[in-house]
Amino acid sequence: MIQVVYDGTYEGWLTAVFDIYQFKFNDVTFGTEDRPSTSLFTGTHTVITDQQKASRVLNGLKAKLTTEGLLRLYRTFLSEVDQSEEIMLQFVLHVFDSKVNIEGDFGNSNVWNLRKAARIVKRESYRMKAFVRFKLTKDELYYALIEPDCNVLPLIKSHFRSRYADQRWLIYDAKRKYGIYYDLETVSTVQLHFHDTKGTAADLTEICDEQEDFFQELWRRYFSSTNIEARKNVKLHLQHMPRRYWKNLIEKNGQ
Amino acid sequence: MIQQRVMEKLEILADAAKYDVSCSSGQSNRKNKDKGIGDSKGYGICHAFTEDGRCVSLLKILLTNYCIFDCGYCVSRKSNDVKRAAFTVDEVVELTINFYRRNYIEGLFLSSGIFDSADFTMERLIKIAKKLRTEKNFNGYIHLKAIPGSSDDLIREAGLYADRLSLNIEMPTETSLKLLAPEKKHADVIRPMEFLREEILGYKEEKKLIKNSPLFAPAGQSTQMVIGATKENDHEILGMANYFYEKMNLKRVYYSGYVPISNDDNRLPTIGTAVPIIRENRLYQADWLIRYYGFNVNEIVGTEYPNLDLDIDPKLGWALRNLHVFPIDINTADLELIKRVPGIGFLSASKIVAARKFKMILPEHLKKMGVAYTRAKFFLTFTKSFTTQKDLMGSQIKYQILSQQNSKYKADFSNQLSLFQ
């Protein structure tokens, strides 16, 4: 068994695949520089990310997969589920091993495991397109905090850019401590340093636009007025809007 | 003070609009033009879910709940003693824009009580949509009500700004409409629907030839029927729905289980009567079978079985009435037939057809693919038999499937007992 350590980027992982083929590694587990494994290995191989190697692997995959299939691989990379890199490797091995496109081989566990992980990410990126709640600051920035299970920012970037083309916005992933910021021209990745007291009432009134509270309150009122009490179905409500997301949803945080 | 009044209005006019169940924001494809606000994707986004489990996608409000009509089923009817309010054009525009910019909504669903005249009401609705599109460069989703009785010119203008237009038939038959809304006729709704069908078709044809011709209600039209307020059976209801899909090219028919709103009207169920949620659900299931599974409406309901079973879904109901079709071999059967197997959805069905090119499909593969195998197994056979299938009667299959599932609505399955008869 060998542990392959890479830098945590997608290019890094693709380079790792290149190395695995080159050195004919068998029985691989993955580690990243900031996520070292504690178990015992017979050896460790450290990957040096290489654009050329990465794009050779990527082009090989492109020749054998549909766009959606390739996207599924990338989504799985962002899923952060247990063993995601190993699931990806098994899938890629299977892809290169076969002469035909194997995406439709649903009976195969390599194909199925990847779909399962990718689906979690797809669902959550859809949810984040829905659950982002922007707040307007005094200097006309619309900002939102999210804490998703998966690393979805790269997947929702283009949606928000095309939709909110005429307003400056920032979506910050508080779990992964980075955000995406649109300055009316391009979207860039940013890192911010919040104080520990972030989110307190005093902080927010200080930076928020004077109309902001009013619209939040309007939204809360709308949310409760549009509910039909006689049809109450909490189970369904929770299924669609799981509790773990409530923290950043204005309508679930009454004042 | 002004803010306080807007909040109050929003509460009144959202409350009055909530019985319109349509909240779809999909099927339109409007791009963000010249760096304006918003766009519409082919798929809708549900931004929140209320405690009744329904999706909140659009800001759904009435322009006003003042109304000159007195329809028994409607909470805003003239004789009902409720708080009345009316938004101004600018208030609706500001609300929509500010909610949209904060990513609360996909757009606006605007309906209205009829004040003064149909044309006057329609003009106001159009004014709002027009202001959003032309002054604010808003490209989000707009669903407008077409007011029955308003002029063709106005309805056409509405189509140039709205993504979807809808006219609610409300009562599944003319008899019920006469009973509850004597001032109205089905024709008032059907005629503008026909007009819209032709306009939508015309603009679509034009768009094929001239690329930059304007969009006209790209998400089509929809309607709604109230269920359980009057005596119609499911055969009549689905027959009507089928008519809308086939003859009017409607994108959606919505079924709205009647929520009792009054105790003083002996024509209607009183407050406290349960909302027919199961029945509504079964109607939606039947609706999907017709639209996506290739079922003919007559296979699902007919003169001999005018109502859908409440305890089992309509697909299982069909299968039990047609046991001669089964069992089928999943490895060789046509896609269309696989879609008809209870427990197999249309996505699973196409997965099965794709996967069987690689290897023979066995039960464990089906389970992996998301098939409800405990339900499907009664209708399937495998080339290499490893379980002996008993000869079961329809009622035995139904009993076995029902004993495996657990519905919180079990108590509402009124014909439960008929199982053992």
UniProtKB/TrEMBL annotation, chain A:
Organism of origin: Flavobacterium agrisoli
A Pfam short name: DUF4130
Protein name: TIGR03915 family putative DNA repair protein
Domain of life: Bacteria
Sequence ranges assigned to domain DUF4130 in this UniProt record: 83-251
NCBIfam families, alphabetized: SAM_7_link_chp
UniProtKB/TrEMBL annotation, chain B:
Cofactor: [4Fe-4S] cluster
Keyword Iron: yes
Pfam name, any one: HHH_3
Limits of the Radical SAM core domain: 51-296
GO MF annotation list: catalytic activity; iron-sulfur cluster binding; metal ion binding
Key word S-adenosyl-L-methionine present: yes
Keywords, alphabetical: Iron, Iron-sulfur, Metal-binding, S-adenosyl-L-methionine
Matches recorded under PANTHER family: ENDONUCLEASE/EXONUCLEASE/PHOSPHATASE FAMILY DOMAIN-CONTAINING PROTEIN 1, TYPE II SECRETION SYSTEM PROTEIN K
Protein name, entry field: DNA modification/repair radical SAM protein
Species of provenance: Flavobacterium agrisoli
